[in-house]
Amino acid sequence: MPETTRELLTAGGWKDLEFGPFRDQVTIHWIRPFADDQPGVALLKYEAGAGVPRHRHEGLETILVLDGVQSDEAGDYGRGSYVVNAPGTEHSVWSDTGCVVLIQWDRPVKMLEQEAV
After folding, report:
1. How many secondary structure helices (H) and strands (E) does the chain include?
2. How does strand 26-32 pair with strand 40-46?
3. C-alpha–C-alpha distance, residues 8 and 39, integer Å
4. Which InterPro entries match (predicted)?
5. What proportions of the chain, in percent to the nearest 5, are helix, strand and coil?
6. How far is Cα 58 from Cα 7, in angstroms, rounded to an integer?
7. Pairing of strands 26-32, 110-111
8. What kind and span of H or E run contains 90?
9. Which helix (DSSP H) or strand (DSSP E) does residue 63 occupy?
């Protein structure tokens, strides 16, 4: 990611980007969709109380929290936190307050639980 893009995102420039549907109360802005064995890179915006059900990482996942707090069973990750989820690990994710994260997936995750309706 070019330095100017990183500076723009960490300074709140993500607020001007368009986000589309991803999961219930979670929206996405693709920076680079998955393609030809290339990792996917995106911004995820969680509304307060939103979450992603339990899933397994089929590849490496890295997350940089740009705003708010993202949580999983291992803890809470505030603005500036860098989270690494190794291939084969499982967790669910939520945000009580809402958050925005920059995420990179080597491969799509496998959902282990259904979304609540």
Report:
1. 1, 10
2. antiparallel
3. 21
4. ChrR-like_cupin_dom (IPR025979), RmlC-like_jellyroll (IPR014710), RmlC_Cupin_sf (IPR011051)
5. 10, 55, 35
6. 30
7. unpaired
8. strand 90-95
9. strand 61-72
Task: Give the domains, in start order, of the chain with CATH numbers.
Answer: 3-111 (2.60.120.10)
Give, in order, the Cα–Cα distances in Å from 20 to each of 46, 52, 59, 77, 88: 12, 16, 24, 24, 28
Q: How many CB atoms lie within 10 A of CB 60?
A: 15
Residue 88 CA: distances (Å) to CA of 10, 33, 93, 102 = 29, 22, 16, 21
User: First-to-last CA distance in the chain?
Assistant: 36
Cα–Cα distance list, 6 to 31, 33, 42, 43, 53 (Å): 12, 18, 13, 12, 29
- Looking at the predicted structure, is the pLDDT value of residue 1 above 70? no
Using DSSP, state whether 115 is helix, strand or coil: coil
Residue keyed to tokens 């609540």: 116
The pLDDT value recorded for residue 9 is 76
